[in-house]
Amino acid sequence: MNYRVPQPVPQVILDDVRGAQKMLSGVSRVTAMEGSRHLSALTGSPVHLKCENLQRTGSFKLRGAYVRIAGLRPEQRAAGVVAASAGNHAQGVALASSLLGVRSTVFMPVGAPLPKVAATQEYGAEVRMHGQVVDETLAAAQEYADRTGAVFIHPFDHRDIIAGQGTVGLEILEQCPEVRTILVGIGGGGLAAGVAVAVKALRPDVRIIGVQAAGAAAYPPSLKVGHPVSIDDPITMADGIKVGRPGDVPFKIIGELLDDVRTVSEDALSSALLLCLERAKLVVEPAGCSTVAALLSEPELYGGGPVVAVLSGGNVDPLLLQRILRHGMAAAGRYLSLRLRVADRPGALAGLLAVLSVVDANVLDVSHVRTDPRLGLTEVEVELHLETKGPEHCAEVARSLHGAGYKVMGQ
Predict the structure, then answer these.
(1) By C-alpha distance, which of 297, 244, 299, 233 is closest to 270?
(2) Residue 406 backbone phi and psi in degrees, to 5
(3) Which residues are catalytically annotated?
(4) 106 has which bridge partners?
(5) For residue 5, what are the CA distances in angstroms to 20, 255, 271?
(6) How many other CB atoms are found less than 10 A from the CB of residue 30?
(7) What's the CA angle centered on 57, arms 239 and 117, to 5 degrees?
(8) Residue 221: partners with Cβ closer than 8 Å, 6 or more residues away
(9) Which residues is 84 bridged to in the sheet?
(10) Contact, 93 vs 59, CB < 8 A?
(11) Tens of pLDDT along the chain (411 residues)?
């Protein structure tokens, strides 16, 4: 399905992206392109992963930030820069500013992951915590810019930012010239817009698909009405694309050049992160693997030629990673939680565990409830957390328990 916006495309053109590529020589890395046998088998087309999670600062954001700050006039550099970000843009601005000798202040949401906050500080920025979501943080940074004269470096809504991010598209065409489809995650839209400008100018036949988290998907309703609209209270584990309103500049480009925008669930995001870690040996944050989540969710849409999925970032809080991995394993049928009642007598639990042992289910945790008034006088409720081998194994465990006379109360 194609969305079309009647407004003219803003002046971000291929020459801008090529100029940004020259400017970034020796600054950003030409990140690796890795094949994925699992995803290729799933889709029926060769799938390649563009590993921007291995970029300096751990995401593509350095590209746009450096191009934007490098283009400032001397008096603007002297005034310093200010930015707002949940983490990746923050680190990109901090490092770019340090490389260019510019003072930087970065506003971050109160709940920003601590490793991202620490990294931003280590790259040389002064960090200020404000707001619960990126949109509130953006407003605070803009107010600071108005009050102090610092130059506001928007994370996505500026032509220089878009040109810098577009260098990812040039690299994709150089590394995979036979590409037929490119998947790009969308938050505010800077990366998708930049990739679209570069790729569509050189290869208009290539499909470009944007991907948003379903709980923070402002682009589909915006594209339908033809202008950016805000969504209330975006909710997703993918903090890097948790943006409540599309940027005006990238919105026009995306409306004109992208072929489609898809959404993915939280289950798909966690499963994609787990797949990247287990199969590709890559640490990718939830926003960064949204493209893989799209492939997992609707593999039938991506046949007919080579696919490149951009892994946009790898900065993930270890505590969040731990929770996501558990969630991903549960979504993939690798964890199973059960509640059932057994007789409250010696040996009853041993008998239950023996049944689970026969079907090779690994018991991670066992808890007992004896005080529920719904229990009989001689009953105890047992809650089990099991490690399993997938959905078929989960079904086998359930059948074995039923066959042994156990009544499963919840699953």
Answers:
(1) 297
(2) -90, 140
(3) 61, 312
(4) 83, 127
(5) 26, 5, 34
(6) 15
(7) 55
(8) 229, 231
(9) 107
(10) no
(11) 444 444 454 589 999 999 999 999 999 999 999 999 999 999 999 999 999 999 999 999 999 999 999 999 999 999 999 999 878 999 999 999 999 999 999 999 888 878 889 999 999 999 999 988 777 888 899 999 999 999 999 999 999 999 999 999 999 999 999 999 999 999 999 999 999 999 999 999 999 999 999 999 999 999 999 999 999 888 999 988 988 899 999 999 999 999 999 999 999 999 999 999 989 999 999 999 999 999 999 999 999 899 999 999 999 888 888 888 777 777 777 788 888 888 878 888 888 889 888 888 888 888 877 677 676 677 888 888 888 888 888 888 888 888 888 878 765
For residues 308 and 47, give the distance between their C-alpha atoms in angstroms, rounded to a whole number: 6
* Tokens read off for 383: 């809650």
Residue matched to tokens 């066959």? 403
Tell me which residue has tokens 């969630």.
327
Beta bridge partners of 51: 311
Query: For residue 263, what are its two tokens?
Result: 């959404």
How far are the Cα atoms of 139, 279, 298, 342, 401 from residue 392, in angstroms, in the given order? 50, 20, 21, 25, 14
Helix/strand/coil for 189: coil
> What is the helix (H) or strand (E) element at residue 251, kind and residue range?
helix 248-257
Two structure tokens written together for 284: 């990718």
Helix (H) / strand (E) element for 267: namely: helix 266-278
